[in-house]
Predict the 3D structure of the following.
Amino acid sequence: MAKRKIEVFTSGCPVCDPVVKLVKKTICPSCEVVIYDLNAGCATNECRDKAKKYGITRVPSVAVNGKLLDCCKIGSVSEKELQEAGVGSA
């Protein structure tokens, strides 16, 4: 089975830490997690390009397999939304 790619977009601040911890708690062996600090950026600018592509307007935000979770468009990240996106299921 292919790995599920979970991308977490943060601003590198303490407000984003609970979502990072929630994602790490929820994942399974079939999940690959990438944490992007949009404030610090990244060497290739990939993180900011992806944020723009996904339509991210707030942080923290989570995308699973290239799709921004609905909760990130209107509210905060929830464990229920992560599980509905397949995070944590092998």
Notes: The beta strands are 4-10, 31-37, 61-64, 67-68. The two ends are 8 Å apart (CA to CA).
